[in-house]
Automatic annotation (TrEMBL):
Originating organism: Haloglomus irregulare
Pfam family, one: NTPase_1
Stated name of the protein: Nucleoside-triphosphatase DP107_05625
Keywords: ATP-binding, Hydrolase, Kinase, Nucleotide-binding, Transferase
Enzyme's top EC category: hydrolase
Residue span, AAA+ ATPase domain: 1-157
Amino acid sequence: MPANVFVTGPPGSGKTTAVERARERLADRGHVAAGVRAPEVREGGERVGFDIVSLRTGRRAAMARIDRDAGPGVGKYRVDVRAVDRLVADALDTAGVDYLLLDEIGPMQVRSDTFVRRVRAALDAETPVLATVKADSRPDGDRDPTDFIEAVHDRDDGLRVTVTPAERDALPERLAAAVAARCGGD
Ligand SMILES: Nc1nc2c(ncn2[C@@H]2O[C@H](COP(=O)(O)OP(=O)(O)OP(=O)(O)O)[C@@H](O)[C@H]2O)c(=O)[nH]1
């Protein structure tokens, strides 16, 4: 059984909400995750960037900011690659956990070679991965130069789920059950 579960869908479709709710259900079943999430950062009601947060430790780093004047650009933000490298070095370590949750495999995160290398290894390892993946073939301005996002879409393993508003209410339980089955749990 392929160990990975990929969640994709258009911007704002509910990917983050679905995997966060699935994580809560998996915790209720006793399944612990490592991994990362990428909350937006707002100042004065305006979005100024995104952080990357370790699920295991809660450590966070300023992944992308609108007012940075250095680093690779994604949309109107610039990415602090070294900050992402440092955070994912242990955030993506699966020792002692049941599965890896990645929210998301996206154009900002893949600017970090450490992120790409650790995720590629995780996708080929035994520990299940539950990941939201940015939709394929983004506009050139945001094109992923590593082509890693496309490579994830092209994998022939894993359960793939596309979030739609009509079906998204049932999605957290479906995702939790799929990951629990891959963890060898209920
Ligand atoms: N009512 C309802 N609202 C939802 C549900 N899932 C997501 N939303 C809302 O839809 C908006 C986008 O949800 P996200 O989970 O951030 O969507 P996303 O696909 O991760 O968005 P991006 O990361 O920007 O691509 C938020 O305001 C959520 O509160 C749902 O199941 N029911």
